[in-house]
Amino acid sequence: MYTVSAELTFYIPHSASLKDKRQVRLSIVDKVRRKFNASVAETDTQDSRQTLTIGVAVVSADASHARQMIDEIIRFMEEHTDAELTGVEV
After folding, report:
1. Distant-in-sequence, close-in-space partners of 68: CB < 8 Å, separation ≥ 6
2. pLDDT, tens digit, for every residue of 26-76?
3. What is the pTM of this model?
4. In angstroms, rounded to a whole number, what is the distance separating the alpha carbons of residues 78 and 8?
5. 18-36 vs 63-79: helix crossing angle, rounded to 10
6. Domain CATH for 71
7. How many structural domains are present in the chain?
8. Where are the beta strands (DSSP E) in the chain?
9. If 0-12 CB within 10 Å is exposed, 13-18 middle and 19+ buried, where does residue 73 land?
10. Which of 1, 8, 13, 18 is the most buried (most CB within 10 A)?
11. For the chain, counts of helices (H) and of strands (E)
């Protein structure tokens, strides 16, 4: 069994409050969970209204498949949100 995880940091320039940030977070987390059945959660920067940090984890019997899934999830998250991806740590 192989586990691959990533931490993504997004900048949300239009977020004027934590409520605005929560809408962005809920949208992207729900989309990723539905499409990929992966574990996704906000992992840091909860008190920052314009910075969103999301952790993603994938478990697979094959290491290359797990890595491929993480790469696909990262691309999906970058394409399906209006927030700017500023950092990725795998």
Report:
1. none
2. 999 999 999 998 999 999 988 899 999 999 999 999 999 999 999 999 999
3. 0.86
4. 10
5. 140
6. 3.30.70.1120
7. 1
8. 2-11, 39-44, 51-60, 84-89
9. buried
10. 8
11. 2, 4
